[in-house]
Amino acid sequence: EKTRLVEFGRYAQQNAKRREAKPATFDFLGFTHYCDRTRRGYFKVGRRTSRKKYRLKMKAMTLWLKTVRNTYPIREMWDVLKAKLIGHYRYYGVSGNYPRVARFYYETVGQAFKWLNRRSQRRSFTWDEFRLYLERYPLPKPKLYQNLYTLAPVS
User: Fold this and answer.
1) pTM of the full structure
2) How many angstroms separate the CA atoms of 74 and 117, rounded?
3) Is the pLDDT of residue 78 over 90?
4) 47 class by beta-carbon count within 10 Å (0-12 exposed, 13-18 middle, 19+ buried)
5) Is the pLDDT higher at 9 or at 98?
6) What is the per-residue pLDDT across 25-51, written as a single tens digit (0 to 9) for each?
7) What per-residue confidence (pLDDT) applies to 104?
């Protein structure tokens, strides 16, 4: 049921173009693997966060922010949020996946702003005040942790 054969590799893109179709992709370990090209035009395996896993992680983050907004002080919540972001970056921060990792960061910041402003009937922050708060207590910026092409950590 889960197993299927997929044409994948160096010539999969050319064969798919001949058939006027898109080359096949597959999801494995939370990543969508697809046929890609290097800057010099050689074949490489491209990886990005799978849509399904991205939506699940974003939904879980939103639910967590919603539930802890009134339970803990902002400073305690902020430390846990930092750890959650770093954990996401460490798993999904592989070469070629920076746009999805950065998108997760920006959507999380937007959700944090939204749920912190719903702690009472009055708004806690305007965007300018929230930016100042982020400057004073920054969240970790998106970062790639693993280069899959040389199998070396990104420094």
Assistant:
1) 0.85
2) 12
3) yes
4) buried
5) 98
6) 888 899 999 888 888 988 888 899 999
7) 97
Tokens standing for residue 39: 């800057």
Which among 72, 48, 68, 70 has a CA at the least distance from the CA of 60?
Answer: 68
Q: How far apart are CA 123 and CA 134, in angstroms?
A: 17
pLDDT > 90? residue 99:
yes
Sign of the Cα torsion 79, 83, 88, 90 reads: positive
Please determine, for residue 56, whether its predicted confidence score (pLDDT) is greater than 90: yes
Location of structure tokens 């998108």? 103
Work out the number of other CB atoms within 10 angstroms of the CB of residue 31: 22
Go through 85-102 and write b for each residue having 16 or more CB atoms within 10 A of its CB, e for each that does not.
beebbebbbbbbbeebbe
What residues contact residue 71 under an 8 Å CB cut-off, 6+ apart? Answer: none
What is the Cα–Cα distance from 69 to 80, expressed in whole angstroms? 12
SS3 of 18-83: the string is: HCCCCCCCEEECCEEEEEEECCCCCEEEEEEECHHHHHHHHHHHHHHHHHHCCCCCHHHHHHHHHH
